[in-house]
């Protein structure tokens, strides 16, 4: 069959523009037909006909439509059958699927103070707000808010109904977390306001655009926001102490050399190790009591196993409690908790590095973490000559790649890129003291000398 885009490679720009508009019109027609067909399936077909408990379940199982989208198709079909004016506009392609659904929901549950005879006029006003390619969902919702204000309904609008709020946070099979939710307008406003600063694009010093997509920037912003909240926020007490990120790891594993780990992960597939270390079987770890028997992993209470490399990254700027276990994994003694990087040291690092010290970054100091050049698990001291301030992105880069950082003769950070970035591995001063050195956030070199 081949890639569909190959059919359009020889088209002129004008032809491509016309093709996109024509195909969109056809899709709108087919979408309307699908809604109508599914509505008839919902009305006539039973479990004996399609074998599923609901039309939504059937549609999402036999097509690539997600369960949520299938539910919206069924809902719109039922609503259009009750409101022919909306159905006519949708079938003609005058209004979008999303706008038709918003209007149908308004019609299904109008403000209590609105008389029945006012509904046709309200529908006409909403269809006018939703009509045409320039219509936006915010405009339709604004029109609904005005109608609700006119009729002075005591009902809380759907956009402000906190009883509808949902947030799903689920662990996936590959060890990640899927986040899905639906919250009221005020909660959404708080979230977007909080994320705004941390998800903004960050061009390079020479004006190069931030290569991250908006979704990636928001994810990075959420991580930064949570990091700052756990570090400095007033979160109260849970289990006798403030909420925090806990990671359990063997001291012997924490001392593993980062560069050895990087070399192992980047080793060609055909260059097998004849004496691999035995990490144990993570499947044997049902809870923390089995941690003493497992080598080569760390453990977090919520998410379970983490790599030792991630544990070392988190341990750079953390509070550390030493726990001595017996041969059965039972605690024998718990040492005193101490912070590896003090607040005073963070202030000194901010004064010296000015923010993220990685060349070409300079992210504000409040977003950064203290990185141990020589990890304290390897005997590295927690003092200014063994610390450097890095943002989360570049902190991970230092822990997961062959980038290196040292403190130069002037007692400021100096970075050495991997051979893949600089074949001669020329050292580069940190961001505050760099002159003509520019690197992308992913470590790829842009320019190696001043113009």
UniProtKB/TrEMBL annotation:
GO molecular function: endonuclease activity; nucleic acid binding; zinc ion binding
Biased composition (Basic residues): 423-435
Statement: the UniProt record of this protein carries the keyword Nuclease: yes
Biological classification of the source: Bacteria, Bacillati, Actinomycetota, Actinomycetes, Mycobacteriales
Family: Belongs to the Rv1128c/1148c/1588c/1702c/1945/3466 family.
Chain residue ranges for the region called Disordered: 251-287, 414-436
Protein's name in the database: HNH endonuclease
Keyword annotations of the record: Endonuclease, Hydrolase, Nuclease
Residues in HNH nuclease domain copies: 344-396
Entry-linked InterPro entries: DUF222, HNH, HNH_nuc
Annotated Pfam families: DUF222 (PF02720), HNH (PF01844)
Comp. bias regions, Basic and acidic residues: 251-278
Superkingdom as given in the UniProt entry: Bacteria
